[in-house]
Amino acid sequence: MTAAAAVLPGTFANGVARGRVEIVQFLRDRTAVVFTFAFPAMLLLLFGTIFGDDYENSGISVAQVYTASMIAYGILNTGFITMGSGLALDREDGTLKRLHGTPITSTAYLLGKLILVFVLSVAEVATLLLVGVLVYDMPMPEASHWVTFAWLFLLSVIACTLCGIAVSALVKHARTAGAILNVPVVALQFISGVFIHPITQLPAWLITVASFFPVKWMSQGFRYVFLPDSMKRYEAAGQWELGRTAMVLGAWCVIGLVLCLLTFRWSEKDQ
């Protein structure tokens, strides 16, 4: 028994292996691939075309502002919705129950999901930037801004993924997952400065509400990365507030982890 246990892969190895399976399964679903990558890019093309070229005589096009802001939407859409609906489906079709009878622990399973979301988010951001560069002449930031992009991207993916895992407990049937999960996603885009910018156009109380959630800080952070410093005057505080952004996203990573530990279950019957 001891010798057999010694050769079993550990949690990390199981998680990586599960991540490969998740990626392969996702790529086999052509509908999911097209929707995940094409929908945010399509919204970017629509917003960039409809709302004109120059952003309040700033020398920055509206499309470039939307390109930076829509990165937050792409990550939220990929992490929150993909994770929430995927977990609900795995629970409903018995995948989780079957995995529960294998050496894969809940940590390894969730690590596999996180790997899937990370890979998809990288591809999503690359797609949006490609549209921004090729269609809207989006300039690439200087090297120091890429450092900010790295920690901002990582915290955003972790926070959205963990929240997606936690909220999956509220989804009773996989077929209703999209409807349930899209409600907070769409609402947060409008009040967080993603679809409506400058965010100061919104009532002060709505901006305050948005400040409690990660999307406002994600979109604001990505605007810092890809837009010139002069654009900070259009933010709610007139500053980029990178320190506060890191604190809020870090707090949501902790909140999401706690909620995951409290709500994750292998089947509907588990309590």
Automatic annotation (TrEMBL):
Pfam families, alphabetically? ABC2_membrane
Which Gene Ontology molecular function entries are recorded, alphabetically? ABC-type transporter activity
Note the superkingdom of the native organism: Bacteria
How is this protein situated with respect to the membrane? Answer: Multi-pass membrane protein
The keyword Disulfide bond is annotated on this UniProt entry: no
Q: What stretches pass through the bilayer?
A: 32-51, 71-89, 110-136, 148-171, 178-199, 205-226, 246-266
Q: Which InterPro entries match?
A: ABC2_TM, ABC2_TM_bact-type, ABC_2_transport, Nod_factor_ABC_transporter
* Assigned GO CC terms: ATP-binding cassette (ABC) transporter complex
Transferase in keyword set: no
Entry protein name: Transport permease protein
Organism (species): Paractinoplanes ferrugineus
